[in-house]
Design a protein that fits this description.
The structure is a single chain. This protein has helices at about 15-35, 40-55, 65-75, 95-100, 125, 145-155, 210-220, 240-270, 300-310, 340-350, 360-384; strands at about 60-65, 85, 105-110, 130-135, 160-165, 170, 175, 185, 200-205, 220-225, 225-230, 290, 295-300, 350-355. The two termini are about 30 Å apart. The strands form 4 sheets. The protein has a 7-stranded mixed sheet with strand order 1-9-8-5-4-2-3, with helices on both faces. The protein is of the alpha/beta class. It is globular, with a radius of gyration of 21 Å. It has 2 domains: about 15-245, Aspartate Aminotransferase, domain 2 (3-Layer(aba) Sandwich); about 250-384, Aspartate Aminotransferase, domain 1 (Alpha-Beta Complex), CATH 3.90.1150.10. The chain contains 11 helices and 14 strands.
Length: about 375
């Protein structure tokens, strides 16, 4: 088997980001090391205050991961056995896993084939007397249709938990995601737009009772030491992570703008090459400010295109190769192939291209040139 050539640049260049903020990050880390306060404390409190202001919510409760944020949100809402939570099967597994870990049932609905987000038109048919919450995913950094989702949720008396793991800074009709439902959930995994040096998460709300429950639940169910009010988790954000995230939060608006510029450049370059006839590109919306955690195109010949790009040294990724309803971990839900055709089609066609803020125009041109080469070869082969 012939060895693949090395990648010409990474899918995500974390070293390039770090190089620009090295001194700030190292000063923040040193501040924590000198304080020797590593669990909660002033760094975490200040980070929660700053990010709540950034997201325009009243309360921000940090935790150990985005997965835990989803679980804590459902626990705070007292979702449990016999309940149902509606979401989509085209997402990272933690979304549905949090539902099952609460003892509830995940009820899937299909995605909108244009946005790949939860199709709000299908919600009324999915909500039952057992439904306690809806989890829309702001997939790849694009806000879901929150107007209709919230309207339907209110009409049926159910909560909305926003999975905003990929969408920090995204806006819907001028408002930041994470403050549109009852609880918003974020991840600070290293690949996210606001990234820690490891795992980290956040739950946001403007409901003081939910915020209080979230704080108690993340600390083993304790408000006071060794006094357990409820069954909770040990899920706290480390002070070292909080200090680094405070530095990065100051740079997030400029990084977001760079991602948006790169997305516009991709659209322009693909149009010049006439490639938009082969690929469906993520499109901007007048209602949504997309933050492009991923730039995902739809390619009917995805696997062949990806192999061609890899042979050219161009990095790509597939989000996601399998829908959740066809995965062994969720077989207990009883869904079958064909139940959610748009989600299933997305898993066959989605391909993520590099989009990080430090990506250069030359690197983007290399991506587009390689894509163009693939379709030129296909066209020649068809003529021959």
């Amino acid at each position: 088997m012939q060895a693949q050539p090395p990648l010409r640049f990474p899918l995500l260049d974390l070293r390039a980001q770090y190089a620009g903020i090295r001194d700030e990050v190292e000063a923040a880390v040193l501040r924590v090391l000198e304080s020797q306060q590593f669990i909660l404390g002033p760094e975490v409190e200040q980070f929660e205050k700053e990010i709540a202001e950034f997201l325009d919510v009243h309360f921000a409760v940090s935790c150990a991961s985005g997965s835990d944020a989803l679980l804590l949100a459902l626990m705070a809402l007292e979702v449990g056995p016999g309940d149902e939570v509606v979401t989509t099967p085209f997402t990272f597994g933690a979304t549905a896993a949090a539902i099952l870990r609460c003892g509830a049932r995940a009820r899937f609905v299909d995605i909108d084939p244009e946005t790949w987000n939860l199709d709000a038109r299908l919600l009324p048919h999915a909500i039952s007397s057992r439904t306690r919450a809806i989890i829309p995913i702001h997939l790849f950094g694009l806000a879901a249709d929150m107007h209709d989702i919230v309207r339907i949720a209110v009409a049926h008396g159910v909560a909305v938990v926003e999975d905003a793991a990929q969408a920090i800074g995204a806006r819907y009709r001028g408002r930041a995601v994470g403050g549109l439902g009852n609880v918003g959930c974020f991840s600070f995994y290293p690949s996210k737009n606001l990234a820690g040096a490891g795992d980290g998460g956040l739950a946001t709300t403007s409901d003081p009772m939910l915020a209080d429950r979230l704080r108690v639940l993340r600390s083993d169910g304790m408000r006071r030491r060794y006094e357990y009010e409820m069954l909770g988790l040990n899920s706290r954000l480390d002070a070292l992570q909080a200090a680094m995230l405070r530095v990065k939060l100051r740079h997030l608006p400029e990084w977001t703008e760079a991602r948006q510029r790169n997305a516009e450049r991709y659209r322009a370059l693909f149009a010049v090459e006439g490639l938009d006839q082969y690929l469906a590109l993520p499109r901007p919306s007048p209602e949504c400010a997309h933050v492009y955690n991923q730039f995902v195109v739809r390619a009917p010949e995805r696997d062949q295109l990806r192999a061609h790009l890899r042979a050219s040294g161009i990095p790509t990724e597939v989000y996601y190769p399998h829908p959740l309803h066809l995965q062994p971990a969720f077989a207990q839900l009883g869904y079958r192939q064909g139940d959610f055709p748009h989600a299933e089609a997305a898993t066959r066609e989605a391909l993520a291209l590099p989009i990080y803020p430090e990506l250069t125009e030359a690197q983007q041109r290399a991506v587009v040139d390689s894509v163009a080469g693939f379709y030129q070869r296909r066209a020649v082969a068809k003529i021959a």
